[in-house]
Amino acid sequence: MVEITINLPESVKERIERNKINLAIVVARVIKQLEEENEMTDWSVKLQHASRRGRFDELIEDLGN
Known about the structure:
Layout: H1 10-18, H2 23-52, H3 55-64
């Protein structure tokens, strides 16, 4: 297991303690969300690259006509 340390303003710390928020769960959810967003970003970049394949050749061909 990995241990992390974060610095929070006192007001945030008090709010977390008052509401009994489990930061381990919050951090785990944020990490999972970031991983999912990264997968989506990778997919969209690959899709964009695929849509551009051959476009340069088409443009060169159009210039020749």
